[in-house]
Amino acid sequence: MSDRMIEDEKFERKLKPLGFTIKEIKPDGHCLYRAVEDQLSLQSGGSSPYAYQELREMAAAYMRKHTSDFLLFFLSENAIDRDSDDSPAERFENYCKEVESTAAWGGQLELGALTHCLRKHIMIYSGSFPDVEMGKEYKSDGGSSSSTGTIRLSYHKHAFGLGEHYDSVFPDLNIQV
């Protein structure tokens, strides 16, 4: 059985009892932002207030404005280029430019920025790693209504040959919970 099949089975075992299923998002480098856009559409009952490109720009702008909150994590995730004369601040600025203007893959830094930009609780389910919860301060109180304010994503390590991928997680209408 392939790694992808094993991961998919783990997702099903995890999400089905919660009444959720995975909606596949195009694997084009924008998957994190497209998955967030899909979740915002689901919450608004129609179209998202932000397109994926706007979400990229928002994340980059937030990271720039709050550099001290992100720089250490950026530097620990991005090995120093020995041939570069750029300062850490210059490298971080170049990274932010990539976030807003290319199809560079998004990850934990961008999710951290988006949770604050959108003032949303974000839950990232994984079949290969522990689930990650971000923006707990934005989590709604109360019964089932709390699910409407939460952005739910799935993180796939083995989905495609290129590696990591995000999809959107939404209520499975075929399951009675």
Automatic annotation (TrEMBL):
Domain (OTU): give its ranges: 20-172
Q: Which GO terms describe its molecular function?
A: cysteine-type deubiquitinase activity
Could you tell me the Gene Ontology terms of the biological process aspect for this record? Answer: protein deubiquitination
CDD domains found in the cross-reference section: OTU_plant_OTU5-like
**Which SUPFAM superfamilies does its entry note?**
Cysteine proteinases
Q: Its family? A: Belongs to the peptidase C85 family.
| Protein's name in the database | OTU domain-containing protein
UniProt source species: Gossypium anomalum
